[in-house]
Amino acid sequence: MRDKVVVVTGGFGVLGQAIAEAALAAGAFVALPGREAKSRIAEQERLLVLGGVDLTDFAAVKQAFETVATRFGKIDGLANVAGGFRWQTLGDGGLDGWTEQFRMNLLTAATATKAALPYLRTSQGAIVNVASAPAKKAGAGMGAYAASKSGVLRLTESLAEEEKNAGVRVNAVLPTIIDTPRNRADMPKADFTRWVKPEEIAKAILFLLSSDAKAITGAELLISGRT
Ligand SMILES: NC(=O)c1ccc[n+]([C@@H]2O[C@H](COP(=O)([O-])OP(=O)(O)OC[C@H]3O[C@@H](n4cnc5c(N)ncnc54)[C@H](OP(=O)(O)O)[C@@H]3O)[C@@H](O)[C@H]2O)c1
Domain limits of the chain? Predict the structure, then answer.
C-alpha cells in the first residue's frame, strides 16, 4: 500500500480508525471524510481529515474527494465503513428506523462511491464495502439493519459488474460482531476473545484494496473470528 491514496469513510469510528492506522503504517496516504472535526489519530503529513462532511450529501462528498485528489494527486482506494446499528422490531419500532438505517449504511456507501469513481477509474483502483453478517441472515430486531446491509451487498455486486471493464474492483466484507468498547458495554457477559478485532478486519480490507487482490472483484468475504 506504499504511496497509495486511500479514503476511509467512517474513519472517526472504531473500525474506520483501525483501517486508517493500518493503511498509514503500510505507507499509504489516508483521507477521512466525516462529520467530526478531529480524528483520534495523531496529525501527520500523510493524513487528511475532512470534517463537517455528511456522507449522504453528494455535493459535500464530491467536494471532499476533490480536496483529497488535489492534496495527494490521485485516489487509489475507497473503504466504505460508515454505518451503524439500531436494534428495533417492526411491530414495536417506528418506521423512521428503516429510513435511518438505509441512509446510514447504504446511501453513505453509494454517495461516496459515486464521488470516488472518476478518480478510481483513472487509477484502476478498488473499493471495499463493509456489510455485515446479518446481511445474509437476519435475527429478530435486525430487519432494517440487515436489509440496509443486504443493499450494500447488492451495490457491491452490481458495481463490480458495472466497473469491470473500467478496471475498478469492488468487494465487500461481512464482519460478525466486532470487539468494540460499545459491544463490550452492551454485552458484558460475552466472551470477547471470540469476537473479531478491528485490526484483523483492517488487514483483510487492505488486502482487498491492494494490487495483491487484483484478480478479486465482486467477492463477499465473511470475517467471523470464532463467533
Ligand atoms: N460493531 C460491530 O459489531 C459491527 C459488526 C458488523 C459490521 N459493522 C459495520 O462496520 C462499520 C463500522 O462499525 P463501527 O463499530 O466502527 O461503528 P462506529 O464506531 O459507530 O463508526 C461508524 C462511523 O460512521 C459514521 N457515519 C455514519 N453515518 C454517517 C454520515 N451520514 N456521514 C458521516 N459519517 C457517518 C459515524 O459518524 P458519526 O459519529 O458522525 O455518526 C461513525 O464515525 C459499520 O458500517 C457497521 O455497520 C459493525
Answer: 5-223
Active-site residue identified among 145, 149, 206, 208: 145
Banded model confidence at residue 59, pLDDT cuts 50, 70, 90: very high
> In the structure, what pLDDT confidence band is assigned to residue 117 with cuts at 50, 70 and 90?
very high
Cell of 51: 470534517
Which of 17, 38, 39, 81 best tests ligand 1's pocket when mutated (most atoms within 8 Å of CB)? 81
| Contact yes or no for 64/37 (Cβ under 8 A) | no
Residues 128/80, Cβ–Cβ less than 8 Å: yes
For 186, the grid coordinates are 452492551
Spatial contact of 76 and 126, defined as CB atoms under 8 Å apart: yes
Q: What is the pLDDT of residue 109?
A: 98
pLDDT (average), residues 6-10: 98
**Stretch 88-103: mean pLDDT, rounded?**
97
- Return the H-helix or E-strand segment holding 30: strand 29-33
Ligand 1 near 178 CB (within 6 A): yes
Distance from C-alpha of 69 to C-alpha of 80, rounded to nearest angstrom: 17
Query: What architecture (CATH level 2) is domain 5-223?
Result: 3-Layer(aba) Sandwich (3.40)
Euclidean distance between CA atoms 199 and 185, whole angstroms: 19
175 φ/ψ angles, rounded to the nearest 5 degrees? -75, 150
